[in-house]
């Protein structure tokens, strides 16, 4: 079996596992991109690797957020079994890890069936690799790392920064009426702020429509030609949902 076939099969399996997990959450009434921050023990923010300090990204954010609230962990920091040992701690016996993935590309060095590009050079091949990580709450000997104070959602701080972000885009946002993005005329419609139960939800709505706005042909040229219910339409909605949820976790 060639490189492409092997990596494609491994990637398809991992994608299927993640997709099945998210679909199961939605069927249970859980929206993995909407974290119940007010009820959580952990500080607001994106999950980070406890060893490197780097933020997790992409689908890993949804996976780790769901696990965080499902188990009631008090930390947004995660690490592998070996990282826990290297830092002088250990994962408690019987603890169950969470699978996350890492995507990158590589160029095969030797062997048979190496794909060749139009330029005659070996083609870079995309791959997915899985890792098992544990929350700091699942570890012993790392209490100092897990003892940082838990902060609450400072909405008074987030909202001004969200406003600055929205204004910095330069998008044509028209307040009043429904909520949508009109790609033909390149403007966003959002209801008046007083129509929302909480002020933060106006900003979430505006950021959602700004997600669609980025796909205009003059920007990323990503908007689908097909209509509601198509796979392309669904992908575009996932982009917009990511656009409305991630800033709420990072603007503090």
TrEMBL record:
It comes from the Bacteria. One of its GO terms (molecular function) is single-stranded DNA binding. Transmembrane segments: none annotated. Residues 161-241 form the Polyvalent protein metallopeptidase domain. Pfam families: ArdcN, MPTase-PolyVal. InterPro entries: ArdC_N, MPTase-PolyVal. Residues 14-134 form the N-terminal domain. This is Antirepressor.
